[in-house]
Amino acid sequence: MDTNIKTWLYDIQSSINEIESYFIAIPKMFESYQNDIKTKRAVERNIEIIGEAMSRILKENNTIEISNSRKIVDVRNRIIHGYDSVSDDVIWGIVIKNLPVLQKEVAILLNE
Length: 112
What we know:
It is built from five helices and no strands. The protein has helices at about 5-20, 30-35, 35-60, 70-80, 90-110. The longest helix is centred in the middle third of the chain and has 24 residues, at about 35-60. The radius of gyration is 14 Å and the shape is globular. The termini are close together.
């Protein structure tokens, strides 16, 4: 695997781990997330990093096996360019449903 792609995969992995670390001190519940502006902004920033890393990966190799890779980039763009229309529900859904899948897929790719 290309060194750049591995670096970006590590960036994705690191951002997911950082998001998970935010929920050590507070319960991993939507209400806790929604009421903590610092955590919301930190999660959004890490999702931006994940989206940017994915964009770079796709430019280098658009056949990489990652579910919803294009949607990941789209979410990044939405957070950055449509910040005023970002829904807490959507971001929370990504944290709960999509990041665990992405984390597994990235781990598999890094172990190849």
